[in-house]
């Protein structure tokens, strides 16, 4: 009861109540910011991993010592390894794609239609056209951003220039060929939408002068986190000299940088909660100073030091607890509506926040993890409760005789 009365504002205690209000707002904003930022970074990583692994295989098997002419037999053996969902040979080469709107570098990947159907990130996100003509080798499938940048629509020809051309007495001449666009896909990752061209496998073999050969075999597994355990069975199943790499090796620098950034952001944003907790110390210290006469009266009528300490501890804990709960609810609301918040801020500020050209993804996603969110809430509660101990202890140590000497 006494703690609640101390929290309520009176005319001569308005300044103390204002400090308590700022402490509450600081805790709330600190917790909400920490939850939202960590959830957005988790969502960014989850989406990025999903896009990368959705388009690229989890394990890449490349031939060594000799050309990959026996890719069909190797693919059949690799597909039978326990834990492997499917294996597919492919042709891959860098090329220059050009259209009415200009010319851009592109990664041309030759695959079979049945294998492209298994890459659901592409086959289920065909925005224009279909893969029926792709199966018959009548054209290529390209990303929506590439089509937009080159000024190409469905059915228009896209000219692909490869440095691996014909050998002539004058040297190697680039190979130039136009292919009709039979499908346009959007996977939601700007780097892929703006740089991938899928070509029928046989057509790609002819185009890159790889008759009877494949660039590598791509393997998709059931559990991407357990690719390490499949390396040895895959090497044995290949029954030839191969070089095996997994998705973690190919992206180790990127994901390591992402993890470091995430940890540093957590430490920096924790400072916001710490500063808010220090506001609780300042507010309670001023409250103890203002209520010294009340404390002295309570002590003279029988209140123990423990009782006085509990009064001020409850006062400070109430600010920290309610601020943490409010911050959690605010953070939850923002995470559930993060894309709408982004669009609203972009409209208000007149600029594009979270541009896909920089962050690779076309939508912002927040992924709240239970363990991480619980850690943030417990951290805020812990800092808030620790901040109340010293002012409450000073109030309990107050000598009633000294406090009432000049009253």
TrEMBL record:
The keyword Disulfide bond does not apply. Pfam families: FtsX, MacB_PCD. The chain crosses the membrane at residues 15-41, 264-288, 308-336, 373-393. Residues 24-236 form the MacB-like periplasmic core domain. It is a multi-pass membrane protein. Keywords: Cell membrane, Lipoprotein, Membrane, Transmembrane, Transmembrane helix, Transport. The keyword Metal-binding does not apply. It is found in: Cell membrane. InterPro entries: ABC3_permease_C (IPR003838), Lipoprotein-release_system (IPR051447), LolCE_TM (IPR011925), MacB_PCD (IPR025857). GO terms for cellular component: plasma membrane protein complex. Residues 267-400 form the ABC3 transporter permease C-terminal domain. One of its GO terms (biological process) is lipoprotein localization to outer membrane. PANTHER family: LIPOPROTEIN-RELEASING SYSTEM TRANSMEMBRANE PROTEIN LOLE. Belongs to the ABC-4 integral membrane protein family. LolC/E subfamily. This is Lipoprotein-releasing ABC transporter permease subunit. The lineage of its organism: Bacteria, Pseudomonadati, Pseudomonadota, Alphaproteobacteria, Hyphomicrobiales.
